[in-house]
């Protein structure tokens, strides 16, 4: 019987015991003591494959003469069991001590170990050797080199190897696309994708290819290509694959086609918790929060156990809806299954609490995290700024720096907003011009818009205008609207008019801009101008989005539309609003009818004001919640001046904390004051 064949068979079968008995037999017949390289190689290979690396290594170290197969067998054992460092160390010894040349099996193994350990220098030496020896023309060697350069983000070199012979195969493309996507190099991924479509037939694509291609489509929002690939993979029959299924859902979600996503999901034959979570994520990304929560009920019904990503997505949906009740029940479940300390879930909990107006709870969750990543810090800093608590935001930022955490692009959006809240102009410019650059962060539109808001808030309106006009940036509607809002608050109607002209040029059909302009004209008592804006809105069919407010009482959501009489308790609610307004008049409240859009008599304007959705919501909450309980209202538009003033007086009158989240920020009304200090 051929000993080598037996050892090979036992290695393939991972039968350690059988191989060991052969080893023992060889010792007994004294054959092993002589230097039989081939038999020893077979033994090493056997032990390495069976995972007994120390036995393999003892044999290997004792060999007086080793050939390239001995080295290769030992390396392959380390490589298969994840010891990439050992592979590279063996490679160094093989070249320097035994003076052996690698073959086409050893070289790719060393190259991929170099990639995994980030050892570019060694990898490049291998590249040099591959060129000299001609091994570069072997497919495995080429693929390993492409992988090395992509993973170390040496894209120029990666593309050079990719373009050189031999022709790239599926493996080459899969590994290069994988690497490019992992590092976010979308343009390059797109270039490689086009090359692949030209050179490789669709029928040869495998699951990994489809996942990669869907990922490119998703990032580029290329629905057309995504659909084509989906059609093809149905033909190849790859739709059974779990990861391909999730990638398909992900692609449709990122491209914004949720109905197609759902169709695909409903007919998927293989589904697990990852697939379900991909569908939930697609809904959440497209702000279909309710659909996400509904789908989760189905997931529960099918007894699929959610993972940490599932919970994070659900919490984000709750945050999007400000559905505190539902969010709390998810929170309880997270605690029950012991995922509270998972960082992804922990961050989602902070986000949910902050979005639902519970900034103190968010802080408590943040403090209780065992591990904090940059996202945790950003959530806290931006959360405080969003809640108008600039001081707290900057405190957390200082704390972050003292723990030597690296701030990111998003961190500075929160920090600059905080400076704006506090009127700290010089400090903000220090962050923008120095600190961000020290951290290697290029300031972007969001940061510059914060500066415009900051200067506007500090009454330095001309400076704000100069800042916009002198920066070579492509400003968007938001920045100019921020400036227009500042002109409105500080009653600088001259500049306001100029800014409005610019705005009408870049976004003439924007309802938000039109309303701000009309408000400005009305405040300046230029009624003709105000009515001209309204005429323009009618002509262009620009509709003001109806004002919508909602509150949650004992897990039920109550929605109020401005001027709406459909609520079952509509009569009582209006009665309540009337009494409230009458009572706060005695405290000094004066209805602000200037900004009301309707062409009606003053008295009727007051009436209209009383039916603004947030007033209805506050009145209803006062009727239905116990004395002293805080009131939380969510609103889709910016809160109007009149409701803002009324809410301040109502908080004083009823001794309640009223929290209103409008389209811009949180307002916390307490004892006659608002946390936004009347600037929003
Ligand atoms: Zn209002
Ligand atoms: Zn406010």
UniProtKB/TrEMBL annotation:
Gene3D superfamilies reported for this sequence: Tetratricopeptide repeat domain
UniProt keyword Repeat, yes or no: yes
Q: Which GO terms describe its biological process?
A: plant organ development; RNA modification
**Any one GO molecular-function label of the UniProt entry:** RNA binding
Q: Where is the DYW domain?
A: 588-680
PPR repeat boundaries?
Answer: 36-70, 169-199, 272-306, 373-407, 408-443
| Family note | Belongs to the PPR family. PCMP-H subfamily.
Q: What is this protein called?
A: DYW domain-containing protein
Q: Which organism is it from?
A: Salvia splendens (Scarlet sage)
């Amino acid at each position: 019987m051929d000993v080598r064949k037996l050892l090979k068979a036992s290695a393939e079968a991972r039968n350690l015991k059988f191989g060991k008995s052969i080893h023992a037999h060889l010792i007994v017949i004294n054959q092993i003591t002589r230097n039989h390289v081939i038999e020893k190689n077979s033994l090493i290979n056997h032990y390495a494959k069976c995972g007994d690396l120390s036995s393999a290594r003892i044999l290997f170290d004792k060999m007086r003469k080793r050939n390239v197969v001995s080295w290769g067998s030992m390396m392959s054992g380390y490589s298969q069991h994840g010891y990439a460092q050992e592979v590279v160390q063996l490679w160094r010894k093989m070249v320097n001590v035994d003076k052996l040349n690698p073959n086409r099996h050893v070289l790719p193994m060393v190259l991929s170990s170099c990639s995994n350990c980030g050892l570019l220098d060694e990898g490049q030496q291998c590249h040099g050797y591959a060129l000299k020896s001609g091994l570069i023309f072997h497919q495995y060697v080429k693929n390993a080199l492409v992988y090395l350069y992509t993973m170390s983000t040496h894209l120029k070199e990666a593309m050079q190897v990719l373009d050189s012979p031999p022709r790239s195969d599926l493996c080459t493309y899969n590994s290069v696309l994988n690497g490019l996507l992992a590092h976010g190099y979308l343009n390059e991924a797109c270039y490689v994708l086009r090359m692949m479509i030209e050179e490789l037939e669709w029928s040869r694509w495998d699951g990994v290819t489809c996942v990669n291609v869907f990922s490119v489509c998703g990032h580029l929002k290329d629905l057309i290509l995504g659909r084509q690939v989906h059609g093809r993979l149905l033909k190849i029959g790859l739709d059974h694959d779990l990861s391909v299924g999730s990638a398909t859902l992900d692609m449709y979600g990122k491209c914004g086609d949720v109905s197609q996503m759902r169709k695909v999901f409903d007919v998927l034959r293989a589904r697990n918790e990852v697939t379900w979570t991909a569908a939930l994520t697609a809904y959440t990304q497209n702000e279909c929060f309710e659909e996400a929560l509904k789908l989760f009920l189905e997931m529960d019904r099918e007894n699929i156990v959610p993972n940490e990503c599932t919970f994070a997505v659900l919490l984000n949906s709750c945050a999007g809806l400000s559905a505190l009740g539902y969010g709390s029940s998810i929170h309880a479940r997270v605690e029950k299954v012991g995922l509270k300390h998972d960082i992804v879930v922990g961050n989602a909990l902070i986000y949910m609490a902050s979005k639902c107006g519970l900034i103190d709870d968010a802080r408590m969750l943040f403090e209780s995290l065992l591990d904090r990543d940059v996202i945790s810090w950003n959530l806290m800093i931006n959360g405080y700024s969003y809640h108008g608590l600039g001081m707290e935001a900057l405190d957390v930022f200082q704390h972050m720096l003292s723990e030597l955490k690296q701030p990111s692009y998003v961190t500075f959006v929160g920090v600059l907003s905080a400076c704006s809240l506090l009127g700290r102009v010089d400090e903000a410019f220090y962050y923008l011009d120095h600190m961000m650059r020290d951290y290697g962060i290029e300031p972007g539109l969001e940061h510059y818009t914060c500066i415009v808001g900051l200067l506007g808030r500090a009454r330095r309106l001309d400076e704000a205008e100069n800042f916009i006009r002198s920066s070579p940036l492509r400003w968007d509607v938001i920045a100019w609207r921020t400036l227009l809002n500042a002109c409105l608050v500080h009653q600088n109607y001259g500049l306001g008019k100029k800014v409005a002209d610019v705005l009408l040029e870049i976004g003439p059909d924007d309802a938000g801009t039109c309303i701000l302009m009309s408000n400005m004209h009305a405040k300046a008592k230029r009624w003709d101008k105000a009515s001209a804006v309204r005429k323009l809105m009618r002509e262009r069919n620009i509709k003001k989005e109806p004002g919508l407010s909602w509150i949650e009482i004992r897990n039920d959501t109550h929605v109020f539309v401005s001027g709406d009489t459909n609520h079952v308790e509509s009569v009582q609610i209006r009665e309540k609003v009337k009494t409230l307004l009458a009572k706060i008049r005695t405290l000094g409240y004066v209805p602000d009818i200037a900004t009301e859009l309707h062409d009606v008599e003053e008295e009727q304007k007051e009436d209209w004001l009383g039916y603004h959705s947030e007033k209805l919501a506050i009145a209803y909450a006062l009727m239905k919640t116990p004395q002293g309980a805080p009131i939380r209202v969510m609103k889709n538009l910016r809160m109007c001046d009149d409701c803002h003033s009324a809410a301040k007086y109502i908080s004083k009158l009823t001794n309640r904390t009223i929290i209103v989240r409008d389209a811009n920020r949180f307002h916390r009304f307490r004892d006659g004051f608002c946390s936004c200090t009347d600037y929003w």
